[in-house]
Amino acid sequence: MRTFIVFSALGLSLFGQGPATPPAPSTASATLPQQPGLVQSSSQQFQGSVPTGEASSTPIALSLQDSIDRGLKTNLGLLVRNTGTAIAQAERRRALSHLLPNVQGSISGTEQQIDLASFGFHFPGVPSVIGPFGYNDARASMSQTAFDWTAWKNKRSADQNLKAAQLSVQDARDLVVQAVASAYLQIIADAARVEATKAQVQTAQALYERARDQHVAGVSPAIDELRAEVELKTQQQALLAQQNQFDHDKLVLGRAIGLPIGQDFALSETIPFRALEGIAPGDALHHALETRSDYLSAQMQVRAAEMARDAARAQRYPTLGLDANYGDTGSSFANSHGTFEVTGSLKFNIWDSGKIRSDVEQADASIQQRKNEMADLSGQIDFQIRAALLDLKTASDQVAVARDNLILANQTLTQARDRFTAGVADNIEVVQAQESVANANQSVISSIYSHNQAKVSLARAMGATETNLKQYMGGK
Q1: How far is CA 299 from each of CA 368, 377, 383, 460, 465, rounded to the nearest angstrom?
Q2: For residue 61, what pLDDT is reported?
Q3: What is the dotted CATH code of the domain comprising 46-103+148-318+352-473?
């Protein structure tokens, strides 16, 4: 057996008996990954979903929690964020692959004939054409990066990006809860408006019939009857508009929670007014910055960008690689012998024409961008909390005023009806009083809806939306 030991500037090779295939190239240093920015899903995505199941002819009953549970399974915005997590997981595996060994196998058969004359060789007594001859080779090759600081830092950066993507999914769950709860509350408000308008239609109908009877009896002019009929038609038109809005907003909720196409449903609960007090903006902001998934995700992205900068700097460090193969070679597999080859290599940068410096500068810019985004998000969270608390306080005060106003409007309507029945006034006062009652009813409904909607906004601003929402709706 003959053994050759060959030294080179890049490494050392050991050749065993028999021919061997050239070694696979050493694993190159991993390229620097692009750092994603803050994940911003379109608000329209959270209004859509992937419908599941078959529609039944019987309307189903939906509570707020049922709606939220359905939304968390089918909402499009959440599904899109889940896809982003899968992509981040794939990027992490790709970064990890630069640190793990790669093993390949091959089986080849070679049949060859050589014309020495074509290479310029002429030997007396030796034929110019040699062959044909052949050999077979079965071989396994392994390539391993023993040390690559850039690849290691890239893997650490990918780890942080994966954590950021996972936190982004949790943030998407909060957005789904917010979207579903808002749509549910809107339908409750629509239903209350429909019932209030129906009551106004019934009142207008009764007043119209009274005005018509008094006109027929000759105790009131025709203008009173016409005025009452106009008011009746106005309330009927308002009822049609409110009913249409109610049906439309039910479609919005059905789309957000992935109900089967054409499935009708009814809300199984109402959410009454419960005041919510005792939340300090400073404490709320401190709590939100510790629990908001999007803010925690922004922190992870800053760390990922910092790791990417370390990876860019690490390109100046040498890399150590190992390549090896072992196989069986011979004129046939029945007449063959084992061969192997091991190559260790040390590679280092001598001159890169400014590439490493540009990579570091790009990474620094990315870090600054991520920090700016995180600072902006902190300010946005503070704004959301303060705005929600302001809306909560204002809506609570509006509920109290609107309820008092409704009591006064009903008293005014009662007195106006009595005056009209007694013949001491025309029905202008009655129509005006009806409008006041209708407006007061709408104010009460709108202020209660605004108060509950402010609770939803505050729950979202504080983080852990589903948990906070349950507490806030109970007035805690």
Answers
A1: 12, 11, 19, 19, 20
A2: 95
A3: 1.20.1600.10
**Alpha helix positions (H), 265-354:** 281-291, 293-313
The model's confidence at residue 381, banded by pLDDT at 50, 70 and 90, is: very high
Q: Residue 7: what pLDDT?
A: 31
CA 388 to chain CA centroid, Å, is 22
Asked if 406 contacts 437 with a C-beta cutoff of 8 angstroms, the reply is: yes
- Beta-bridged to residue 143, according to DSSP, are 102, 323
Mean pLDDT of the chain: 87
Domain ranges of the chain: 46-103+148-318+352-473
Cα 426–196–413 angle (5° rounding)? 25
- Residue type for 422, please? A
Q: How far apart are CA 391 and CA 308, in angstroms?
A: 42
Euclidean distance between CA atoms 51 and 466, whole angstroms: 22
Whole-number percent of the chain with pLDDT over 90: 65
Tokens coding 307: 């790791």
Could you tell me the two tokens for 426? 């025309």
**Which stretches does DSSP call E strand in 184-309?**
265-267
Token pair 């003959």: residue? 2
Name which of 55, 258, 82, 298 is nearest 170 in CA terms: 82
CA distances from 129 to 110, 114, 116, 120, 179 (A): 17, 6, 6, 12, 81
Orientation angle between helical segments 149-217 and 355-422, nearest 10 degrees: 10
Q: What pLDDT is attached to residue 421?
A: 82
Cis, peptide link before residue 132, omega less than 30° from 0? yes
Residue 470 CA to residue 452 CA, distance in Å, equals 12
CA distance to 127, 170, 189, 358, 394, per residue, from 400 (Å): 112, 37, 17, 63, 10
DSSP for residue 118: G
